[in-house]
Amino acid sequence: MPVMERIQAEVDGHPIVLFMKGTPQFPMCGFSSRAVQALRDAGAEHLYTINVLEEPEIRANLPRYSNWPTFPQLFINGELIGGCDITLELHESGELQRIVAEALSP
Question: Which PANTHER family match (predicted)?
Answer without folding.
Answer: GLUTAREDOXIN FAMILY MEMBER, MONOTHIOL GLUTAREDOXIN-S14, CHLOROPLASTIC
